[in-house]
Known about the structure:
By secondary structure, the protein is mainly α. Helix content is about 55%, strand content about 5%. The chain contains 13 helices and 4 strands.
Amino acid sequence: MTHVPIRVSTLRGDQPIEFDAFVKINEKHILFLRKGDSFEGGRLTRLKEKKLKKMFILQDDETNYRKYLDRNIENAFDPNSGKSIEIRSEIVQGATQARSEDVMENPDNVEMYNDAKAGAMKFVEFLNREGKALTQILHMENMDQNIAHHGVTVSSIAISMAAKLGIKDPKQTQLLSLGALLHDFEHFHTPMNIARPLEAFTPDELKLYKQHPLNGSRRLQDKKHFDQVILNIISQHEEFVDGRGFPQGLAENKLDPLAIVVASANKLDRLLSFEKVPRAEIPKQLMVKYMGCHPLEHLKIMSEIIKT
Ligand SMILES: [Fe+2]
Ligand SMILES: [Fe+2]
């Protein structure tokens, strides 16, 4: 029997699965969850604590798996599905994370890029329609310190900021969302653990870290299906509007406006998920430590967002 991989991030929500799910241990596939069971609560938490990204299903079950995914996502987008906003946000978060993991792992694949791009637009619509979804997503702990999970959080912050800043053009918000999802593309391809305070980095690690935006965009330079603005966001998301960011120290008038939004949103999730700054202290840190690094309007909006 042939086993095929599936992403753990797609196994969300309270739906019973319609396939047997396996984990791979010492080259053997071990049955983890049977058809008819669900991934609620503790089971999913344990998998994520182990930083397990992939599980396996039997090839014969691929159609059942697709059906499970489709139904989950349909329910999640439907305000009348009877599902709570908690469950719906969790499913949308997982589906969005899975699509960006696909792109980061397979940047040559045009179809996966287009799927993620279409999904980014749905993600914008979902967040703009469901006022409580952002808070839900900000409270989903990134327990496996996953780069794609960080991308989804940054994307949801960026989308919410855009709405408050009056950036409404659907094409712009779609690219903003997608760029935020993929902004740390480079970290997906290097072994460095970035999910810790920058102060804990050694000088060598810090030197390498400062190159990740440019290395990421270089890695994608020849991929013609990537929109240019996505590469701009990847290469400029650590720049500051006062020109003191990295890697190039570009000033505000040299930065892509969408990259400026992603840089701000990225700062908020770095403090929250990686620096482990308590939520109550984040507004003060933003307004004192990062004053001048990001537009004042962004700092104000993020200080409000984090209180919800
Ligand atoms: Fe980054
Ligand atoms: Fe980041």
